[in-house]
Amino acid sequence: MEHRSNSLGATYRRALMAFMATAAAMMFAIGPATASGDAARGEILYQQCEDCHSIDENDVGPMHRGVVGRLAGTVPDYHYSPALRNAKIPWTEENLDKWLTNPQEFIPGARMFYNVKNPQDRADIIAFLKDRAAAPARRASLP
Q: What are the residues whose beta carbons fall under 8 Å from the beta carbon of 101, sequence distance 6 or more?
């Protein structure tokens, strides 16, 4: 009987290891965009966003120039949903990733319904927004 018990224990351990490996693989595949983003690829992917957004002008959605680091709902002359206007969250890379994953889940009541399922695509879009759509440098004041 002891032999049978060890055999069941080994089977259980193998099954548990297989389950853990599968779960880890799934988490990697659908997890947050933690990978390093490619801004050039993000610029190409951003073209999908241009149905509603622009880098420098408000459209259906607010402009994206300087979005990384900006507080949500604060672009001048853009009429936000109450949910986004009152969110008071900074657009960090992590928050942008959550937003692009599922805007309605991240900020219920927001108007944006488009989502980006692929974590690498999200990382690339965020890299583009961070690097290529950064706020212009402020000019030094002249004396």
A: 32, 115, 116, 117, 122
* pTM passes above 0.85: no
Q: Which amino acid belongs to residue 64?
A: H
User: Which residue in 95, 47, 39 sits closest to 67, CA to CA?
Assistant: 95
CATH number at residue 50: 1.10.760.10
If you search the block for the tokens 């969250």, which residue do you land on? 89
State which residues form the domain around 125.
31-131
61-113: per-residue pLDDT in tens? 999 999 999 999 999 999 999 999 999 999 999 999 999 999 999 999 999 99
